[in-house]
Amino acid sequence: xxxxxxxxxxxxxxxxxxxxxxxxxxxxxxxxxxxxxxxxxxxxxxxxxxxxxxxxxxxxxxxxxxxxxxxxxxxxxxxxxxxxxxxxxxxxxxxxxxxxxxxxxxxxx
Length: 109
What we know:
The chain is mostly helical and 109 residues long. 63% of the residues lie in helices and 0% in strands. The protein contains three helices and no strands. The model has no long low-confidence stretch (mean pLDDT 83).
């Protein structure tokens, strides 16, 4: 895939040089030719062609993290409910009422 990209960039570079060195051409036209025929399409095509590889890499990384987390859980023998990354996943109330705390202010009737 990269060989085709390198070849196409060479062709576009030569088109740009021909545009800049032509008697009716301009350097601005050469720059526009290089970006519109070369750089922008190549970046788009390479990004789209690498999408499956990026997805595969992300899935492999997530699987490795999951295996490492399972290994830590097995080594520590911690129940699954308290090993979650969510702090309130234990099923208990986040805080209990304390005795001797400040009483709520109510309107007298």
